[in-house]
Specification:
Elements: H1 3-32, E1 36-44, E2 46-51, E3 57-68, E4 87-89, E5 93-98, E6 104-109, E7 115-121, E8 132-135, H2 137-140, E9 146-154, E10 166-175, E11 188-195, E12 200-205, E13 221-227, E14 236-242, E15 247-252, E16 260-262, H3 266-272, H4 274-295, H5 300-313
Antiparallel strand pairs: 1-10, 1-14, 2-6, 2-9, 3-4, 3-5, 3-8, 6-7, 7-8, 9-12, 9-13, 10-11, 12-15, 13-14, 15-16
Helix pairs in contact: 1-4, 1-5
Length: about 325
């Protein structure tokens, strides 16, 4: 076998290795685009939560229940928390609320420091639509965290007179990687950003394969609600992490009818994944070795040993 033939075989082997690496990179990028989660922390005056599961049990240290009247009572005298014309106010006291799966509630922070929980639907028979639970300001300012599980809308449409809008916050998109799982079980940060005041944010599942697959739905999230603990930056602090699947985040702004969709793509994965960057560097080194091999003569004995090694791995007739 001539030197030229030996050299051609060696170059072919190196080329096959480079192709194999490229294939693994493609697998890593495609797999990573499905296993994604969003991490959100926001300071807001309002939020809406569609509760799921059976873990939404809230121990409220002191709360006032305002039950919506079937008919207005024009002669009723207002209490300290609720307008008596449309609400019947109960005495303040501790209460444990076990929210049923499927209930939808609205959270509001009032400028007096209190937190208002308005029942929108699905909480019967304990609560009916329109009922309100109010945690007084002096209690909420030091209240323990309240856990939440469900679909969360951070903020609300802002307009003149709105008092339940999103103030500020930070979000991160993290996703799993087939290649990274060989070295460590982790979710890699692929994209992040800040919320602007007045935006409305919500995480949704996204269809796979360019719109083919299951229809979109609000993503399930796990998190907690806490007081701000900062008098200069009042509001509710909502911190949550979403389920891990194919996801995207929807952002809406006042006056804009079309929502903005945040969906990390393959380019985000390439630019942020250390495994892919390392593999790309290795591919570059291999390409350089091939180019050097074309110009640097090698000993016939070295070629013979390399060929013998690969022939033992892949014998003829296999």
């Amino acid at each position: 076998m001539s030197k030229k033939t030996d050299k051609t075989v060696a170059e072919t082997v190196l080329f096959c290795l480079a192709v194999a690496i490229i294939v693994l990179l493609c697998i890593a990028m495609v797999h990573g685009s499905w296993g994604r989660t969003f991490v959100i922390e926001a300071r807001t005056f309002g939020a809406t939560v569609a509760l799921r599961g059976d873990v939404n049990n809230w121990e409220l240290e002191e709360v006032v229940l305002c039950r919506a009247r079937a008919l207005p009572d024009l002669k009723a005298v207002d209490g300290p928390f609720c307008p008596a014309v449309i609400f019947e106010e109960t005495e303040a006291g501790p209460r444990v609320v076990a929210w049923p799966s499927g209930a939808t509630i609205a959270l509001r922070y009032k400028l007096d420091g209190s937190m208002v929980i308005e029942v929108l639907s699905g909480a019967e028979p304990e609560f009916k639509r329109g009922d309100r639970l109010i945690v007084p300001g002096h209690i909420w300012s030091r209240h323990p965290a309240l856990s939440i599980n469900g679909a969360i809308v951070f903020g609300s449409d802002i307009g003149s007179g709105s008092n339940d809008y999103l103030l500020s916050g930070h979000w991160e998109a993290r996703q799993s990687s087939f290649a990274a799982s060989w070295f460590r079980a982790t979710l890699e940060l692929v994209r992040q950003g800040e919320f602007s005041r007045g935006a409305t944010a919500e995480v949704w599942t996204s269809p796979r394969f360019f719109g083919l697959g299951k229809s979109s739905r609000p993503a399930n999230m796990f998190g907690h609600i806490t007081p701000s603990f900062d008098q200069d930056e009042p509001g509710l602090i909502l911190s949550a992490i979403s389920e891990t699947t194919s996801l995207e985040m929807h952002l809406r702004y006042y006056g804009v009818s079309q929502k903005s969709v945040v969906r990390p793509d393959i380019l985000d994965t390439i630019l942020t994944s250390p495994v892919i960057l390392a593999a790309a560097a290795l591919l570059g080194i291999l390409s350089l070795m091939i180019e050097l091999g074309k110009n640097i003569p090698m000993n016939r004995e070295i070629y013979a040993r390399a060929l013998g090694f690969f022939r033992r791995l892949w014998p003829r007739g296999r």
